[in-house]
Amino acid sequence: MIDTVMQRLGVTEAQYRQGDYVVTSPTDGGEIGRVTLEGVEAVAARIDRAEKAFKQWSRVPAPRRGELVRLFGEQLRRHKQDLGTLVTLECGKILQEGLGEVQEMIDICDLAVGQSRQLYGLTIASERPGHHMRESWHPLGPVGLITAFNFPVAPWAWNAALALVCGNSLLWKPSEKTPLSALACQALLERAIEAFGDDAPRDLSQVIIGVRDAGERLVDDPRVPLISATGSTRMGREVAPRVAARFGRSILELGGNNAMILAPSADLDMAVRAILFSAAGTAGQRCTTLRRLIVHESIREEVLERLKKAYAGIRIGDPMEGHLVGPLIDAQAFEQMQSALERARQQGAKVFGGERQLADIYPNGYFVSPAIVEVERQDDLVRHETFAPILYVMSYRDFDEALAMNNDVPQGLSSCVFTTDVREAEAFVSDQGSDCGIANVNIGPSGAEIGGAFGGEKDTGGGRESGSDVWKSYMRRQTNTVNYSRELPLAQGIQFD
Ligand code: NAD
């Protein structure tokens, strides 16, 4: 199947069958491709080309640049099934979610096309007669993109679609666990570039297939004014100071530790469905996965009973075949999950689920039943993001205590409350409420739409991607003062003669 989709997506066998770095399927551990890893010299050469491409592309009027993104969106619509299938084969999320990721790419293209006619600045009142002040937004330069395995295509597109309409060239270092999806996105974008015509330079978008040293080369280069990096907090801690040391800008989208406060007035049918999707979906490997359930003590037992029943019915198996939960990415992810569960047991927590599944059919695929872990307090284990389907359940007595628990973790990505009490709902989204970048009411923490800005605070890195006014991050701001009078008055009334 992999060959059929790669062929339809326009990736050549030379690109994905001939290297010495083996790409494996998380479902059965089998080889699905071989790629060639690039070293630091190849990255430097790519940056040279990206600089030249930027000079050409930044001169193309923004609405024309939007036309390229429109053509790319068309390619994605045409190949949604193929690319969604490839995402599922390579990173193991179920097909529905693979398709959902591609739909997000289509959505951001639509948004970026409109945005290409709306890269507007301000006019500002000048204190001097005969003067105009305004703010302009100009293209920035080559944009470096680093992405994680669990969303191998959508976060790239959130950045790429906006960066392109803003007049920038792209250098993408995808996760070494999912290079094939990146090659496919690049092939589709190249088709759009070809259809667009000569104004689009050949090296407008480049993919760097490499491991950490390739990422570091990109991060350290002063010719790349913006690094947008998605991945673990560990990676962000390494990348952020390196970019800052050369006065570059970064957008950081790092780990999350997302909570739901479940109040006694909540619609429990809705809440249980939301928990199932956000805690167990994508085998707990979303940055916005629900990891902490803070439930009112009066409904704790009822909720736990309903959840365990729902968890017992989750269909686990081949992500291509109508199951709800596919495999973990690899053996290391499985071991990290098991060691977190073991620590929880040692600390006296009650653990439900979490066992390996289907090992007889897939000895090299790491399927697990999602786990529910009842803990007394929010200790270091709960505060740490274990990238696997573990839901820690804790109870609260009054709403302020629940809010404090929601905020008392290092990460600040997503959060939600289920309540029908308007005071609780409004308090949660107020300045004194959730400290996260995303705070939802009666919706789980995952599954964001692209119209809003996406990202989080604290150890999540503070970056924002996707909608709202995020496009400004991909441009440089310039303040202009134009004197159309015959005098030369100075600001602040200063006399200099
Ligand atoms: P990871 O940090 O291991 O790798 C992410 C990317 O960073 C990879 O491309 C990797 O090669 C690169 N990288 C690692 N160290 C680097 C360095 N020193 N310099 C340059 N590049 C480096 O993350 P992962 O395991 O692929 O993804 C899972 C993590 O990503 C989780 O923590 C998850 O919460 C987070 N994530 C966050 C978001 C978000 O939007 N906040 C989205 C998806 C995933």
Account of the 3D structure:
The structure is a single chain. This protein folds into 2 domains: 1-254 and 461-480, Aldehyde Dehydrogenase, Chain A, domain 1; 258-441, Aldehyde Dehydrogenase, Chain A, domain 2 (3-Layer(aba) Sandwich). The protein is built from 16 helices and 23 strands. It has helices spanning 2-9, 13-16, 40-57, 62-78, 80-91, 95-115, 154-165, 179-196, 212-220, 233-245, 268-280, 300-312, 331-346, 380-383, 399-407, 422-429; strands spanning 21-24, 31-35, 123-124, 131-139, 143-146, 170-173, 205-207, 226-230, 249-253, 258-262, 290-296, 350-352, 356-357, 367-368, 371-374, 390-396, 411-412, 414-418, 438-441, 453-454, 457-458, 465-466, 475-483. The strands form 7 sheets. The chain has a 7-stranded mixed sheet with strand order 12-15-16-11-10-18-19, with helices on both faces. A 5-stranded parallel sheet has the order 7-6-5-8-9, sandwiched between helices. It has a 3-stranded antiparallel sheet with strand order 3-4-23, with no helix packed on it. Helix 8 links the parallel strand 6 (170-173) and strand 7. The longest helix has 21 residues, at 95-115. The protein is globular and about 80 Å long. It starts with a helix and ends in a 14-residue tail after the last strand. The mean pLDDT is 98. It binds nicotinamide-adenine-dinucleotide (NAD).
